[in-house]
Amino acid sequence: MFCRNQTTRATVARGSALEMEIRIGKFRRNDLQDAPPSQDSDIQKKIDHEIRMRDGACKLLAACSQREQALEAAKSLQTCSTRIMAYMSELQRMKEAQVMQNVPRRSSDAGPMDERLPCKGKVAISDLRIPLMWKDTEYFKNKGELHRCAVFCLLQLGGEIFDTDMVIVDRTLTDICFDNAIVFNKASPGFELRVELYSCCSEDDYSAGSTPRKLASKLSSSLGRSAGKKLRAAMEPGPCSPVSNGGASPLLLPVPSVPGPKYHLLAHTSLSLSQIQDGFRTHDLTISGNEECSYWLPLYGSMCCRLVAQPYCMTQQMMSGCLKVKQCGGDPQSWTNVFAVLKGTSLFCYHRQEDVEANVEPAFTIGINKETRIRASEKDPQSKVQHICISNQYGGEEVTHTLTAESREDTHRWMEAFWQHFYDMSQWKQCCDDLMKIELPSPRKPASITPKQGSLYHEMVIDSTHDLSSTVSDILARRMQELELRSQLGMSPTWMSVFEENDTKPAAFPRQCNSRLSGHSPCSPHRRPLSPASPPCCPRLGLLSSDASLTSDSDSHCSTSPCCHHRGWPEPSLNFPLLSSSPFGLRPRTLSLDAKLSTLRGRGYGGGGGTFQCPCQPPPSSRLSPLPISSRSPLSQRSTQTTLSCSSSTSSNSSSNSEGSHSPESSEGVLFSRPSPARRSLRNLRARLDPRNWLQSQV
Amino acid sequence: MSFVPGQPVTAVVQRIEIQKLRQGDKLILGFSIGGGIDQDPGQNPFSEDKTDKGIYVTRISPGGPADVANLRMGDKIMQVNGWDMTMVTHDQARKKLTKQKEDVVRLLITRKSLEETVSQSKGKNPKPCTYANEKQNLNDVMYTNNVR
């Protein structure tokens, strides 16, 4: 069908008659002869509904006083506006299609009319998670105002638009999680699911738009630099934020501009059939806006979600009727009467029609999948009816079933149904291999489980700090002796005094130790910014995330170096250990993924000729002891995920850990290539630390 | 085997003692583990709860020490020689299992079939082992050995 424009923006001209009609809600029927009136009026009803909702949201926004309410109302406003835009463009498209239909078509245009259309299906997206990437200084410092943003996601597929719940994000959160599961009905295989993340700054002092300019500039110049910047950014839309109602709209429906919070588009992405998988996947986000905008959040740049689809050919009965079936190789006269139902990847044959509703097991099932071949055979000389032969390969053997319908029309209809089914399966591709489950959102669990938003650390319970601190100090003391720390540094690290003292004075932490230890203060109860990882002439002792990490023999160097902004890790938040043992009951330090990376890199440096060896480790006598090859075949469930070639060989591991892990690490990767040692170790590190791998180690 | 963060974990466990086998100059156990708090729990094929970041047995070498000791694939390891395995990184777990100075490991494992066995056996009054996550309680917990 000829389609003039591919954009979804409605292009109703200002002051045009069509626009007037849309506003009034009437249509001149004589202009739209072939128009099915129900479709138009459906959309018109929806538009009216959304306009009413929008008006209500505006009123609510103007009336409400609390920030939360205002944010929610602004979110509804944004959603309604987007929906109206979508319906308008849908209407426009329909009108154009009708106009085009009236134009007499040339014969060369004919043809597409017979095109087969694939069946539609349900598409569900759930468990949206967007990781954040706060700067280390912001995360650990805990000073300054808490920059909070309210965010929500708008999901659009075809004509359906849904929004998620609103989430308040501040720097204690590591990810933005949306628990909603959103189901779109009537999606075609060529769908495009657009996910947009809107955010709005949620500071109380900055009510946009109402302050007069002069006063605003006076205020902003008198405030601190960063606060003033934010204020200015919040008050004017600025170059970094599009107008909040979704772009410059040529529509003339009056877009109400209300005072109050406005949402801006922060990031967006598009998902389609190829991204569907029965599991979690990570997708890239396109971020709009920059750091200067008030609604800015440091996004990692990707989004994880679970996108599944249930095409109707898998869930609904595509065709049913009475047939006669004969097994291949059986008695030529033994025809079985069955009631057959074509659904999903099989043709279910029941003895009687009533069995279908009664949920009785079918008499037998014939598989209909991508490898099935169906053909119509020669006409039976007696009844002049064609047989339908269905051939499948069952484990190397070919099994053919022969079916006969009651009449030629029936045969034709069945063949048509099979062709349509095959076409659907070819269009929906991986969705037709197996039925993917769509989990409808269960009723919300009682709030006791997640009482408030915030990081998981707020829910930690630490009972007796005294025991813990003595344990920690014992362990640290032992560690120091093992590593001969004192001799290296020539002084007792001042941080030890933290544990020798009573734990009643957290504020008295000596600050000078920061510079002494080459920029490391491992046991700071305050969130002190750490200088980047320096070469490990000085051992790093991270504040433990678990006792085990300090007493484990070779892996003692858990440093807490700052975020390295590694672009390769889509999920840094996974590595935050959930145990905490801060002896002073303060918010525990986290051991980030990047810290671990620098730890392992440090070990690598140590291997390359560091200044100290862990004396408690016996030098590994055989680094490259061969492991049984059969045991290292990668398991299938991981093979598709890893894109980094992890040379999993023990050689790479051993070369990077010269302290000697006594059992050569044999974390299995995917490829067995052996590049040069430097690349190998780095690649191995990456592969081992990439959370997309699900590592398995042989012990 | 789902859990609420911050609350003690309760599970029906079984003790398994594995004698390490000397192979060359190494002591091996003959199985592979997967999981850990730094791994993606969604890829664990053995866990019921896909947010479970525990350590699972992913493969058993046939005829190896673990096989002889009746460790099964899919078992979740709760403790190794008294060290907690429910809240450790993958590397930490591996290290606890591969200490060359120890020639026997005593594991506490749990699997779904144990729970079912316990719930199906009537007349007995099994006390599921209360397995607390807080480290300071590790030495104080009493375990009951459950029949398989």
Verbal overview:
The complex is a heterodimer of chains A (699) and B (148). With 699 residues, chain A is an alpha+beta fold. Chain A is built from 18 helices and 19 strands. Chain A has helices at residues 17-24, 37-63, 67-102, 136-141, 213-222, 225-235, 312-315, 354-358, 408-428, 465-483, 485-489, 496-500, 513-516, 547-551, 593-609, 636-639, 650-656, 677-689; strands at residues 121-131, 149-157, 160-163, 167-169, 175-178, 182-187, 193-201, 264-271, 280-284, 286-287, 302-311, 317-327, 336-343, 346-350, 364-367, 373-379, 386-394, 397-404, 696-698. In chain A, the strands form 3 sheets. Chain A has a 7-stranded antiparallel β-sheet with strand order 15-14-13-12-18-17-16. In chain A, strands 2, 3, 4, 7, 8 and 10 form a 6-stranded antiparallel β-sheet that branches. In chain A, strands 1, 5, 6, 9 and 11 form a 5-stranded antiparallel β-sheet that branches. The radius of gyration of chain A is 33 Å and the shape is flat. The two termini of chain A are 63 Å apart. The model of chain A is unreliable at 5-10, 26-35, 107-113, 205-213, 236-253, 445-454, 498-590 and 604-674 (pLDDT under 50). Chain B is an alpha+beta fold. Chain B contains 3 helices and 10 strands. Chain B has helices at residues 65-68, 90-97, 112-120; strands spanning 9-11, 13-19, 21-23, 26-28, 31-35, 55-60, 76-80, 83-84, 104-110, 129-131. In chain B, strands 2, 5, 6, 7, 8 and 9 form a 6-stranded antiparallel β-sheet that branches. In chain B, strands 1-10 form a two-stranded antiparallel ribbon. Residues 132-148 of chain B have low confidence and may be disordered. Chains A and B meet through helix 14 and strand 19 of A and strand 5, strand 8 and helix 2 of B.
